[in-house]
Design goal:
The complex is a heterodimer. By secondary structure, chain A is mainly alpha-helical. Chain A is built from eleven helices and no strands. Chain A folds into two domains: 57 residues, no CATH class; 225 residues, Orthogonal Bundle (MetI-like fold), CATH 1.10.3720.10. Chain B folds into two domains: 131 residues, D-Maltodextrin-Binding Protein, domain 2 (3-Layer(aba) Sandwich), CATH 3.40.190.10; 106 residues, 3-Layer(aba) Sandwich (D-Maltodextrin-Binding Protein, domain 2), CATH 3.40.190. Chain B is 40% helix and 19% strand. In chain B, α2 links the parallel β2 and β3. Classes of the chains: A mainly alpha, B alpha/beta.
Chain lengths: 286, 304
C-alpha cells in the first residue's frame, strides 16, 4: 500500500535514492496516520457493540418498552423534521443560489450558524424564544399554546440543529446546475415549475440526497437542545439519545448499551441506504 | 437516467406525505408507560435504612497535608455549599487544590464504577452510597454529614395558583420531578405516596393524578429548579437547600408539611483509589463545626 504514494522511478543515483526513501517514509507515515484514525473510530463502536450484544439477552420487559417507545419517537420525529426541512429548506437553498437579494450574505451566514453552535446554545436560544416566558412563547402562552414538554418541541429542536446541514448541501447541489440549462428549457416553453421538476431537481439530486442524509442523521442524534427545550418524558419527548443518557445517568448501563447499539444499527442502515441510492443515481448519470 | 429519477422523485414525495401524516398523528398516539409513581407498602418515612449509616458527626479535627490535589464527587444539591466549603479550605490551605464534580448521585456512582478518579464521594441518599459500596469503589464506613428537607417550588408568578401540596393533583398542572433513580426523585415520590395515605386531605387517587401531571423527568435536582425558574413547569419538587439566593427571586416555595416530608440524609465516604489523607481531612472538615455551619447557611438541616 505505501507504494501508492511513492513515485515510480528506477533511478539509482544516491540523491534520487534519498528522495525515494523519504517519500517511502512519508507513504508509511500516511498509512499509519490513517490507520490510527480508523482504529480510533472503530474501536469504541466495536467495544460498545460487543458489550451490548452480551447484555441484550438480559433486557427486561421495561427495557424493551423503553427501547420501543424511544425508537418510535426518534424515527417519527426525525422523519417529521426531515419533511419540514425539505419543504422549507429547498426553496431557501434555491433562493440563495439563484437570486441576488439584499442581505443574502447575512441570511447565508445565519443559516450556517447552528452548524457551529453547540446544541446547548440551541436549547437555551429556543427556550428564550419559545419557552413560556420567551419572546414568542409568552404570546403563544396567552393563546393557550405551550410547546415545552411536547413532541412539537422535539421536532422544533431537531429542525433548528439539522436544517442548516440540508440547506448547505442542497445549495451545493443546485450550484452544480448551470442556469443556461434551465434557460434553454424555458426557451423551449417549459414553465418554472416544470424546469425545476424536470431539470434542476434531477441534476441537483446528489447534493439534495446528501443533505437529506446529513440532516436526518443530525436530527436522529439531537440531544442537547431537546433535553433543555423539550424535556425528558417517555413516549412524548424522550428520543433515543435522551433515553440512552437517562438510562446511563440512572446507573442502568445495560439498557443504555442496548439502546446505543440499536441507534448505531439504525444510523448505519440510513447511511448504507443513502450510499446505495446515490451510487445508483451516479451510475445512471454516467 | 430519466426513469430512475422520476422513480426517486415519486419515492421522495411519497415518503414526505407519509411523514406529514405521521407527524400530525404522532403526539397523541403514544402510550405513556413507566412513569407511574409506584408506592411501596410501607412508607419508609424518610431516612432510608438508618442502620446503613451509623456514624454521625464523629468529627475529628480536620488536618490537611501540606499540599495536594483533592477531587470530590458530590450530589448536585451540594453544589453551592460544597463550592463554598472548597473555597474556605483552599483559602486556609493555599497549596491544596480541590476540584468538584457535581451531578446526580446515581450518575456519580456510574462514573466512579467506570473508573473516574476521585478521592471523596458524597451522595444524597443511602441507596446510592450502598450502590457505590456494592461496586467496591468506596473505602471505609460512610458517615452521615447533613440532612435536607423537600419543598415544592413554583415560578414567582405561580401561574397554576398552587396553594398547597394537595394542589399537585389538580388537572393540567405541569409538574417536573427528578428521575426516580435520582435521590430527590425517589424522595419526592415517597412524599407523594405519604400524602396519598391521608385521603381526607389529599383525596382519592392522589398518586395517579399527580403521576399524570408529570411532564418531564430530569437527571438532577438543579435542572428541576431551572425548569421551574424558567416558568416552563408549573411546579417541581426539590430540596429546600436548592432554593439558593440566585434563584430565590424567580421562584416561590410551597412548604411540604412535616408529617409527609421526607428527610434526606447525606452520606460521605473516601473513595478506595483516592488519597486517603486528603479525603479524611476533607470529611473531617465537613463534619466539623465550620463545615456544618456552611451547610446550615445553605439551607441544609443540621444533624440532631
Amino acid at each position: 500500500m505505501p507504494d501508492l504514494v511513492t513515485p515510480t522511478t528506477s533511478a539509482r543515483s544516491s540523491s534520487r535514492r534519498a528522495g525515494h526513501d523519504a517519500s517511502r517514509g512519508l507513504g508509511v507515515a500516511v498509512f499509519i496516520a490513517a490507520g490510527l484514525l480508523v482504529l480510533f473510530l472503530a474501536l469504541p463502536l466495536g467495544a460498545m457493540s460487543w458489550r451490548a450484544i452480551q447484555e441484550s439477552r438480559g433486557l427486561t420487559p421495561e427495557g424493551r418498552d423503553l427501547l420501543w417507545q424511544a425508537l418510535t419517537l426518534s424515527l417519527t420525529t426525525s422523519l417529521a423534521s426531515l419533511a419540514i426541512i425539505t419543504l422549507l429548506g429547498t426553496p431557501l437553498a434555491w433562493l440563495l443560489v439563484r437570486r441576488r437579494f439584499r442581505g443574502a450574505r447575512l441570511v447565508d451566514t445565519l443559516v450556517d450558524l447552528p452548524i457551529v453552535l453547540p446544541p446547548a446554545v440551541a436549547g437555551i436560544a429556543l427556550l428564550m424564544a419559545f419557552g413560556r416566558q420567551g419572546v414568542f412563547g409568552q404570546w403563544l402562552d396567552q393563546l393557550g399554546i405551550t410547546v415545552g414538554f411536547t413532541t412539537t418541541a422535539v421536532v422544533m429542536a431537531q429542525v433548528f440543529v439539522a436544517a442548516p446541514f440540508y440547506v448547505r448541501s442542497a445549495k451545493t447541489g443546485l450550484l452544480s446546475v448551470s442556469p443556461e440549462t434551465e434557460e434553454a428549457a424555458m426557451v423551449d416553453g417549459a414553465t418554472g415549475w416544470m424546469v425545476f421538476r424536470d431539470i434542476t431537481l434531477p441534476l441537483a439530486l446528489p447534493g439534495i440526497a446528501a443533505g437529506l442524509v446529513l440532516a436526518w442523521a443530525r436530527a436522529l442524534g439531537e440531544f442537547g437542545a431537546t433535553i433543555m427545550f423539550a424535556g425528558n418524558f417517555p413516549g412524548i419527548t424522550q428520543t433515543m439519545p435522551l433515553a440512552i443518557y437517562g438510562r446511563f445517568s440512572a446507573g442502568d448501563l445495560q439498557s443504555a448499551l442496548v439502546l446505543s447499539l440499536v441507534l448505531l444499527v439504525t444510523s448505519l442502515a440510513i447511511l448504507l441506504t443513502a450510499r446505495t441510492v446515490s451510487s445508483r443515481s451516479e451510475d445512471t448519470d454516467g | 437516467m430519466q426513469a430512475s429519477i422520476t422513480m426517486m422523485q415519486r419515492m421522495i414525495v411519497g415518503v414526505m406525505l407519509m411523514l406529514a401524516a405521521i407527524g400530525v398523528a404522532a403526539p397523541g398516539s403514544f402510550a405513556t408507560a413507566q412513569t407511574a409513581i409506584e408506592c411501596v407498602a410501607s412508607p419508609s418515612g424518610g431516612s432510608g435504612n438508618p442502620a446503613a449509616t451509623p456514624a454521625t458527626a464523629s468529627a475529628s479535627q480536620a488536618v490537611f497535608p501540606e499540599s495536594g490535589e483533592l477531587t470530590v464527587f458530590a450530589a448536585a444539591s451540594l453544589t453551592d455549599a460544597f463550592a463554598q466549603i472548597g473555597d474556605d479550605i483552599m483559602a486556609a490551605n493555599p497549596d491544596i487544590d480541590i476540584t468538584f464534580n457535581f451531578a446526580g448521585s446515581q450518575t456519580l456512582v456510574t462514573q466512579l464504577t467506570q473508573g473516574a478518579p476521585a478521592d471523596v464521594f458524597a451522595a444524597a441518599n443511602d441507596a446510592q452510597m450502598q450502590a457505590a459500596i456494592g461496586e467496591g469503589v468506596v473505602a471505609g464506613e460512610p458517615q452521615t454529614f447533613t440532612r435536607n428537607r423537600l419543598a415544592i417550588v413554583v415560578p414567582a408568578d405561580n401561574p397554576a395558583n398552587l396553594a398547597g401540596p394537595a394542589d399537585l393533583a389538580r388537572d393540567d398542572l405541569r409538574l417536573v420531578l427528578a428521575l426516580p433513580e435520582v435521590p430527590v426523585g425517589l424522595y419526592s415520590r415517597e412524599a407523594i405516596c405519604d400524602m396519598a395515605e391521608d385521603t381526607s386531605a389529599y383525596g382519592e387517587g392522589f398518586v395517579e393524578q399527580v403521576g399524570a401531571n408529570i411532564v418531564s423527568q430530569e437527571e438532577d435536582v438543579r435542572v428541576v429548579v431551572t425548569k421551574v425558574q424558567l416558568g416552563e413547569a408549573d411546579a417541581g419538587m426539590v430540596y429546600v437547600s436548592d432554593i439558593t439566593a440566585d434563584v430565590a427571586g424567580d421562584v416561590e416555595i410551597i412548604e411540604v408539611p412535616d408529617d409527609v416530608n421526607v428527610i434526606a440524609t447525606y452520606p460521605i465516604a473516601p473513595v478506595g483509589d483516592g488519597d486517603a489523607a486528603l479525603a479524611g481531612a476533607f470529611i473531617a472538615y465537613v463534619l466539623g463545626p465550620e463545615g456544618q455551619a456552611t451547610l446550615e447557611d445553605y439551607g441544609f438541616t443540621v444533624l440532631p
